[in-house]
Amino acid sequence: MKNNRRSLVFVNVLLGAVLLTAAAAQAQPASQSTSQTSDRYRIGPGDVLDIRIFNRPQLSRDAVRVEGSGMIRMPLVDGEIQAACKTEGELAQDIKTHYLKFYRNPQVDVFIKEYHAREVAVIGAINEQGRYQMQRRLRLLELLTYAKGPSDKAGQTINIVRAPRSGLCSNGISAGDEGGSFMSLRLNDTMRGEEKANPYVEPGDIVTLPEADQVYVIGNVYSPKMLPLREPITVSRAVAMAGGPLRDSKTDRVHIVRQQQGGDAEIFVDLRAIARKQATDVLLQPNDIVEVRESTSKSMIRSLLGVVAPAMGQLPVRVIP
To answer: What phi, psi does 292 have (nearest 5°)?
Structure first.
């Protein structure tokens, strides 16, 4: 008797687990379908539509521009039809409903010919600045990939200036903060795809990548250059990033010009002492100019050689037997 009861309990538990699994399986496609629907492009003001009604060429229309109010007009239909905030399929169904008064089961298709409503701008330290017309919802990182990513001059932040919303859509993805907003994110977090730093971009957004603060390494180094201050850089590291000092450089007296209120300040550092850990490696500040000078006498000799050598190359060559 006890064995029968245990068997009955086991069957009930197993049946419950099966039912829960089936319910979860049914719920998953529904959530995926909702996600796919929310990602679909929704028509907005300025978009241009082609509307086709099967076997009704007199009703079909080419190049219908959605008005600023989000409305369009169709033959035989009294008043206007709202197109904004709807997908192509939703608008087609709405137009079909209007024509059911005149025709039995009309077949309506709507195609977006030109996208203008969902345009965003990407400017600043980006490889391909420009305006981008989105045909679906995009997250910030995906938009940056279309713009070929941040340039070498990009700093550590990325900003989104969100324009005020028109309020045409009471719900859905086109609804937003009517007063506009400003969002500042860490670029590294965005590039890693972290969710908090990778929001969906919205129509009218202006994405800006400010350039990093810069320092300059000039003088007697292998590769004089501008260095972006994406992270703290010391004077010895900056000189190394410029290829290092050339021969005959005065590494015991590297010159730093620092912009300050009231005038420029001059700092001299000894790279050899820094290498021996006998002096502090100065941390550079934005717009510092690091100048690696060379020995005066050697500099004069090198300059003279630069002038004399080309002249020597023009002399005729004679062979002494």
So the answer is: -95, 110
C-alpha to C-alpha distance for 106 and 99, rounded to whole angstroms: 7
What pTM does this model have? Answer: 0.56
Kindly report each contact of residues 58-66 with a partner whose C-beta sits within 8 Å and lies 24 or more positions away, as own/partner: 59/99, 62/113, 63/113, 66/117
* Paired strand residues for 229: none
Helix (H) or strand (E) segment spanning residue 64: strand 61-65
Q: Are 86 and 145 in contact (CB under 8 A)?
A: no
pLDDT digits (tens, 9 = 90+) for 141-198: 999 999 999 998 898 899 999 877 655 664 444 444 455 688 899 999 999 999 999 9
Q: Sign of the C-alpha dihedral, residues 17, 19, 23, 26?
A: positive
Q: Are strands 206-209 and 61-65 parallel, antiparallel or unpaired?
A: unpaired
Q: What is the largest CA-CA distance in the chain?
A: 126
SS3 at position 6: helix
